[in-house]
Amino acid sequence: MRVLAIETSCDETAAAVVRDGRTVEGNSVASQIEIHQPFGGVVPEVASRAHVSAMAPVIKEAMAQAEIGWEQLDLVAATMGPGLAGSLLIGLNTAKGLAYGRGLPLLGVNHLVGHIYANWILDDSEDEEPEFPLLCLVVSGGHSDLVLMRGHDDLVRIGRTLDDAAGEAFDKVARILGLGFPGGPIMQKTAAEGDASRYPLPRAWLKGTYDFSFSGLKTATLHLVQRFPQGQVPVPDIAASFQEAVADVLSAKTAQAAEEFGARQVAVAGGVSANRRLREMVQSRSPVPVRMPPLHYCTDNAAMIGSAAYYRWMSGARTELDVDVQPNLPVA
Asked: In the structure, what pLDDT confidence band is assigned to residue 98 with cuts at 50, 70 and 90?
Protein backbone atom coordinates (compact mmCIF):
# COMPACT_ATOMS: atom_id res chain seq x y z
CA MET A 1 0.00 0.00 0.00
CA ARG A 2 1.47 3.34 -1.07
CA VAL A 3 0.67 6.58 0.73
CA LEU A 4 1.37 10.07 -0.56
CA ALA A 5 1.82 12.11 2.62
CA ILE A 6 1.94 15.89 3.09
CA GLU A 7 3.22 17.76 6.16
CA THR A 8 2.83 21.54 6.67
CA SER A 9 2.22 22.00 10.39
CA CYS A 10 4.77 24.79 10.85
CA ASP A 11 7.62 25.97 8.63
CA GLU A 12 8.63 22.91 6.60
CA THR A 13 6.82 21.98 3.41
CA ALA A 14 7.20 18.23 3.04
CA ALA A 15 5.91 15.37 0.92
CA ALA A 16 6.76 11.68 0.91
CA VAL A 17 5.77 8.39 -0.62
CA VAL A 18 5.70 5.59 1.96
CA ARG A 19 5.05 1.91 1.22
CA ASP A 20 3.40 -0.35 3.81
CA GLY A 21 4.11 2.10 6.61
CA ARG A 22 7.84 1.43 6.83
CA THR A 23 9.62 1.89 3.51
CA VAL A 24 10.22 5.47 2.34
CA GLU A 25 10.34 5.52 -1.46
CA GLY A 26 10.42 9.29 -1.85
CA ASN A 27 10.98 12.10 0.63
CA SER A 28 11.24 15.84 0.00
CA VAL A 29 11.44 18.73 2.48
CA ALA A 30 11.58 22.46 1.73
CA SER A 31 12.89 24.34 4.75
CA GLN A 32 11.94 27.91 5.61
CA ILE A 33 14.68 28.54 8.20
CA GLU A 34 16.41 31.25 6.18
CA ILE A 35 13.10 33.05 5.65
CA HIS A 36 12.29 33.25 9.37
CA GLN A 37 15.79 33.78 10.82
CA PRO A 38 15.67 37.60 10.54
CA PHE A 39 12.55 37.58 12.73
CA GLY A 40 13.97 35.27 15.41
CA GLY A 41 11.05 32.86 15.05
CA VAL A 42 8.36 31.57 12.71
CA VAL A 43 6.00 34.22 11.30
CA PRO A 44 2.70 32.39 10.57
CA GLU A 45 1.58 34.44 7.55
CA VAL A 46 5.02 34.25 5.98
CA ALA A 47 5.07 30.48 6.56
CA SER A 48 1.69 30.01 4.88
CA ARG A 49 2.77 31.90 1.76
CA ALA A 50 5.99 29.90 1.55
CA HIS A 51 4.00 26.65 1.75
CA VAL A 52 1.93 27.71 -1.26
CA SER A 53 5.08 28.25 -3.33
CA ALA A 54 6.82 25.04 -2.25
CA MET A 55 3.91 22.59 -2.23
CA ALA A 56 3.83 21.47 -5.86
CA PRO A 57 7.62 21.12 -6.18
CA VAL A 58 8.01 18.92 -3.08
CA ILE A 59 5.17 16.63 -4.19
CA LYS A 60 6.69 16.27 -7.66
CA GLU A 61 10.12 15.60 -6.14
CA ALA A 62 8.81 12.91 -3.75
CA MET A 63 6.98 11.11 -6.54
CA ALA A 64 9.97 11.40 -8.85
CA GLN A 65 12.20 9.83 -6.22
CA ALA A 66 9.67 7.00 -5.82
CA GLU A 67 9.48 6.60 -9.62
CA ILE A 68 5.71 6.16 -9.55
CA GLY A 69 2.63 7.70 -11.15
CA TRP A 70 -0.69 8.67 -9.59
CA GLU A 71 -2.23 5.31 -10.51
CA GLN A 72 0.17 3.57 -8.13
CA LEU A 73 -0.99 5.50 -5.07
CA ASP A 74 -3.59 4.05 -2.68
CA LEU A 75 -4.07 6.87 -0.17
CA VAL A 76 -3.43 10.58 0.29
CA ALA A 77 -2.62 11.70 3.86
CA ALA A 78 -1.92 15.08 5.40
CA THR A 79 -1.30 16.61 8.79
CA MET A 80 -4.56 18.03 10.21
CA GLY A 81 -3.14 19.32 13.52
CA PRO A 82 -1.73 20.48 15.79
CA GLY A 83 0.17 23.38 14.30
CA LEU A 84 -0.25 26.80 12.74
CA ALA A 85 -3.76 27.10 11.31
CA GLY A 86 -2.70 28.77 8.07
CA SER A 87 0.10 26.30 7.43
CA LEU A 88 -2.12 23.32 8.16
CA LEU A 89 -4.78 24.60 5.75
CA ILE A 90 -2.32 24.69 2.84
CA GLY A 91 -1.30 21.06 3.27
CA LEU A 92 -4.70 19.61 4.12
CA ASN A 93 -6.51 21.44 1.32
CA THR A 94 -3.86 20.30 -1.15
CA ALA A 95 -4.42 16.72 0.00
CA LYS A 96 -8.19 17.13 -0.32
CA GLY A 97 -7.85 18.38 -3.88
CA LEU A 98 -5.52 15.56 -4.87
CA ALA A 99 -7.72 12.92 -3.24
CA TYR A 100 -10.86 14.24 -4.90
CA GLY A 101 -9.27 14.80 -8.28
CA ARG A 102 -7.54 11.43 -8.40
CA GLY A 103 -10.35 9.42 -6.81
CA LEU A 104 -8.22 8.40 -3.83
CA PRO A 105 -9.21 8.13 -0.16
CA LEU A 106 -8.03 10.85 2.24
CA LEU A 107 -6.73 10.52 5.78
CA GLY A 108 -5.98 13.33 8.22
CA VAL A 109 -3.08 12.59 10.58
CA ASN A 110 -2.16 13.94 14.00
CA HIS A 111 1.25 15.60 13.67
CA LEU A 112 2.40 14.40 17.09
CA VAL A 113 1.32 10.83 16.38
CA GLY A 114 3.29 11.16 13.17
CA HIS A 115 6.41 11.97 15.17
CA ILE A 116 5.91 8.74 17.13
CA TYR A 117 5.62 6.73 13.92
CA ALA A 118 9.01 7.98 12.76
CA ASN A 119 10.16 5.05 14.91
CA TRP A 120 8.48 2.62 12.49
CA ILE A 121 10.42 3.81 9.45
CA LEU A 122 13.05 1.31 8.36
CA ASP A 123 16.68 2.33 8.49
CA ASP A 124 19.97 0.43 8.45
CA SER A 125 19.71 -0.82 12.02
CA GLU A 126 16.05 -1.56 12.80
CA ASP A 127 14.10 -4.41 11.19
CA GLU A 128 11.52 -5.31 13.84
CA GLU A 129 8.57 -3.05 14.58
CA PRO A 130 8.36 -1.37 18.00
CA GLU A 131 6.74 -3.51 20.67
CA PHE A 132 3.62 -2.65 22.67
CA PRO A 133 3.07 -1.38 25.27
CA LEU A 134 5.37 1.42 24.12
CA LEU A 135 6.20 4.46 26.26
CA CYS A 136 6.68 7.45 23.94
CA LEU A 137 8.40 10.72 24.81
CA VAL A 138 7.32 13.33 22.26
CA VAL A 139 9.35 16.53 22.54
CA SER A 140 9.16 19.32 19.99
CA GLY A 141 8.99 23.08 19.66
CA GLY A 142 5.40 23.25 20.82
CA HIS A 143 4.84 20.03 22.77
CA SER A 144 6.32 17.84 25.47
CA ASP A 145 4.19 14.75 26.06
CA LEU A 146 4.53 11.30 27.56
CA VAL A 147 2.26 8.84 25.76
CA LEU A 148 1.50 5.21 26.60
CA MET A 149 0.85 3.39 23.35
CA ARG A 150 -0.87 0.03 23.84
CA GLY A 151 -1.67 -0.48 20.17
CA HIS A 152 -1.95 1.39 16.89
CA ASP A 153 -5.38 2.70 17.87
CA ASP A 154 -4.83 2.88 21.63
CA LEU A 155 -2.85 5.91 22.86
CA VAL A 156 -3.13 7.54 26.28
CA ARG A 157 -1.37 10.75 27.25
CA ILE A 158 -0.01 10.35 30.77
CA GLY A 159 2.02 13.56 30.95
CA ARG A 160 2.30 16.92 29.22
CA THR A 161 3.95 20.31 29.50
CA LEU A 162 2.12 22.79 31.73
CA ASP A 163 3.77 25.82 30.11
CA ASP A 164 6.75 26.03 27.75
CA ALA A 165 7.56 22.97 25.71
CA ALA A 166 11.15 21.77 25.70
CA GLY A 167 11.84 23.00 22.16
CA GLU A 168 10.23 26.36 22.87
CA ALA A 169 12.43 26.73 25.96
CA PHE A 170 15.54 25.94 23.88
CA ASP A 171 14.56 28.65 21.37
CA LYS A 172 13.90 31.26 24.07
CA VAL A 173 17.12 30.58 25.96
CA ALA A 174 19.08 30.65 22.69
CA ARG A 175 17.64 34.11 22.13
CA ILE A 176 18.60 35.15 25.67
CA LEU A 177 22.16 33.98 25.00
CA GLY A 178 22.28 35.73 21.64
CA LEU A 179 22.70 32.51 19.69
CA GLY A 180 20.00 33.00 17.07
CA PHE A 181 17.20 30.87 15.60
CA PRO A 182 16.44 27.98 15.54
CA GLY A 183 17.70 27.42 19.06
CA GLY A 184 17.98 23.64 19.36
CA PRO A 185 20.92 22.89 17.04
CA ILE A 186 22.97 25.95 18.02
CA MET A 187 22.35 25.32 21.73
CA GLN A 188 23.64 21.76 21.38
CA LYS A 189 26.72 22.91 19.50
CA THR A 190 27.45 25.63 22.04
CA ALA A 191 26.80 23.34 25.02
CA ALA A 192 29.39 20.89 23.72
CA GLU A 193 32.05 23.49 24.56
CA GLY A 194 30.73 24.17 28.07
CA ASP A 195 30.70 22.69 31.57
CA ALA A 196 27.20 21.40 32.40
CA SER A 197 27.98 21.21 36.12
CA ARG A 198 29.09 24.82 36.52
CA TYR A 199 25.62 26.25 37.11
CA PRO A 200 23.14 23.88 38.85
CA LEU A 201 19.95 25.26 37.33
CA PRO A 202 16.59 24.24 38.89
CA ARG A 203 14.48 21.25 37.84
CA ALA A 204 10.68 21.30 38.12
CA TRP A 205 9.99 17.69 39.10
CA LEU A 206 6.23 18.14 39.74
CA LYS A 207 6.30 15.07 41.94
CA GLY A 208 3.36 12.73 41.71
CA THR A 209 2.79 13.51 38.02
CA TYR A 210 4.42 12.89 34.66
CA ASP A 211 3.89 16.50 33.61
CA PHE A 212 6.66 18.91 32.65
CA SER A 213 7.38 22.58 33.26
CA PHE A 214 10.27 24.53 31.76
CA SER A 215 9.10 28.10 32.31
CA GLY A 216 10.85 28.39 35.67
CA LEU A 217 14.07 26.99 34.24
CA LYS A 218 13.94 29.54 31.43
CA THR A 219 13.43 32.38 33.93
CA ALA A 220 16.26 31.11 36.14
CA THR A 221 18.55 31.05 33.11
CA LEU A 222 17.59 34.64 32.27
CA HIS A 223 18.40 35.76 35.83
CA LEU A 224 21.73 33.94 35.65
CA VAL A 225 22.66 35.72 32.43
CA GLN A 226 21.73 39.09 33.95
CA ARG A 227 24.30 38.59 36.71
CA PHE A 228 27.15 39.06 34.25
CA PRO A 229 28.36 42.29 32.64
CA GLN A 230 27.60 42.61 28.96
CA GLY A 231 30.18 40.73 26.90
CA GLN A 232 31.28 38.54 29.83
CA VAL A 233 28.46 35.98 29.85
CA PRO A 234 29.87 32.40 29.96
CA VAL A 235 27.59 31.31 27.13
CA PRO A 236 28.86 27.71 26.62
CA ASP A 237 28.63 26.88 30.34
CA ILE A 238 25.11 28.30 30.64
CA ALA A 239 23.98 26.54 27.48
CA ALA A 240 25.37 23.24 28.76
CA SER A 241 23.78 23.71 32.19
CA PHE A 242 20.41 24.50 30.65
CA GLN A 243 20.58 21.53 28.27
CA GLU A 244 21.52 19.24 31.16
CA ALA A 245 18.53 20.38 33.22
CA VAL A 246 16.07 19.76 30.39
CA ALA A 247 17.51 16.35 29.51
CA ASP A 248 17.64 15.36 33.18
CA VAL A 249 13.92 15.90 33.75
CA LEU A 250 12.77 14.42 30.45
CA SER A 251 14.88 11.28 30.75
CA ALA A 252 14.14 10.68 34.43
CA LYS A 253 10.38 10.93 34.01
CA THR A 254 10.46 8.75 30.90
CA ALA A 255 12.39 6.01 32.70
CA GLN A 256 10.06 6.17 35.71
CA ALA A 257 6.92 5.97 33.54
CA ALA A 258 8.31 3.08 31.50
CA GLU A 259 8.81 1.09 34.70
CA GLU A 260 5.47 1.99 36.26
CA PHE A 261 3.39 1.19 33.18
CA GLY A 262 5.28 -1.95 32.21
CA ALA A 263 6.47 -0.70 28.83
CA ARG A 264 8.38 -3.19 26.71
CA GLN A 265 10.20 -0.41 24.86
CA VAL A 266 10.69 3.35 25.02
CA ALA A 267 10.43 5.54 21.92
CA VAL A 268 11.65 9.13 21.63
CA ALA A 269 10.26 11.42 18.96
CA GLY A 270 9.97 15.05 17.89
CA GLY A 271 12.49 17.70 16.95
CA VAL A 272 14.13 17.80 20.38
CA SER A 273 14.78 14.04 20.15
CA ALA A 274 17.67 14.99 17.86
CA ASN A 275 19.46 16.46 20.89
CA ARG A 276 22.52 14.32 21.57
CA ARG A 277 22.53 14.76 25.34
CA LEU A 278 18.85 13.84 25.64
CA ARG A 279 19.38 10.70 23.57
CA GLU A 280 22.33 9.68 25.77
CA MET A 281 20.42 10.19 29.02
CA VAL A 282 17.28 8.38 27.87
CA GLN A 283 19.40 5.44 26.70
CA SER A 284 21.36 5.24 29.95
CA ARG A 285 18.35 5.52 32.28
CA SER A 286 15.68 3.49 30.52
CA PRO A 287 14.90 0.10 32.09
CA VAL A 288 13.87 -1.25 28.64
CA PRO A 289 15.26 -0.98 25.09
CA VAL A 290 15.03 2.49 23.52
CA ARG A 291 14.10 3.34 19.94
CA MET A 292 14.98 6.66 18.33
CA PRO A 293 14.42 7.80 14.75
CA PRO A 294 17.36 8.69 12.52
CA LEU A 295 18.16 12.37 12.94
CA HIS A 296 16.61 13.36 9.59
CA TYR A 297 13.26 11.93 10.72
CA CYS A 298 13.29 13.69 14.11
CA THR A 299 12.41 17.10 12.68
CA ASP A 300 9.20 17.71 10.72
CA ASN A 301 8.88 15.51 7.64
CA ALA A 302 6.16 13.81 5.63
CA ALA A 303 7.58 10.29 5.82
CA MET A 304 6.44 10.01 9.45
CA ILE A 305 2.95 11.18 8.39
CA GLY A 306 2.86 8.48 5.73
CA SER A 307 3.87 5.82 8.23
CA ALA A 308 1.24 6.92 10.74
CA ALA A 309 -1.39 7.09 7.99
CA TYR A 310 -0.77 3.50 6.91
CA TYR A 311 -1.16 2.06 10.40
CA ARG A 312 -4.13 4.28 11.24
CA TRP A 313 -5.82 3.27 7.97
CA MET A 314 -5.21 -0.43 8.64
CA SER A 315 -6.75 0.07 12.10
CA GLY A 316 -9.92 1.43 10.55
CA ALA A 317 -9.40 5.21 10.71
CA ARG A 318 -11.18 7.17 7.98
CA THR A 319 -11.49 10.86 7.06
CA GLU A 320 -14.17 12.62 5.02
CA LEU A 321 -13.40 15.39 2.56
CA ASP A 322 -15.08 17.99 4.79
CA VAL A 323 -12.47 17.51 7.54
CA ASP A 324 -11.07 20.75 8.95
CA VAL A 325 -7.72 21.55 10.53
CA GLN A 326 -7.38 21.32 14.31
CA PRO A 327 -4.54 23.66 15.42
CA ASN A 328 -4.79 22.56 19.08
CA LEU A 329 -5.25 18.83 18.48
CA PRO A 330 -3.81 16.86 21.43
CA VAL A 331 -1.63 13.81 20.89
CA ALA A 332 -4.26 11.57 22.48
From this structure: very high
- Give the domain range for residue 73: 2-121+297-314
The torsion angles phi and psi of 153, rounded to 5 degrees, stand at -115, 25
At position 256, the amino acid (one-letter code) is Q
Residue 40 is predicted with a pLDDT of 87
Contact yes or no for 212/167 (Cβ under 8 A)? no
Average of pLDDT values for 251-266? 98
Q: How many Cβ atoms are within 10 Å of 22's Cβ, its own excluded?
A: 19
Q: Can you give the pTM of this predicted structure?
A: 0.95
Number of domains making up the chain:
2
298 to 117, 206, 271: CA distances (angstroms): 10, 27, 5
Whichever domain contains 36, its CATH number is: 3.30.420.40
Give the helix, strand, coil percentages of the chain, each rounded to 5. 45, 20, 35
Amino acid letter for position 19: R
- Please indicate, yes or no, whether residues 147 and 94 belong to a single structural domain of this protein: no
User: What angle, rounded to 10 degrees, do the helices at 44-66 and 85-102 form?
Assistant: 40
Q: Does 41 fall in a domain? A: yes
The residue-averaged pLDDT of 134-144 equals: 95
**275-309 residue pLDDT tens:** 999 999 999 999 999 999 999 999 999 999 999 99
CA distance 27 to 3: 12
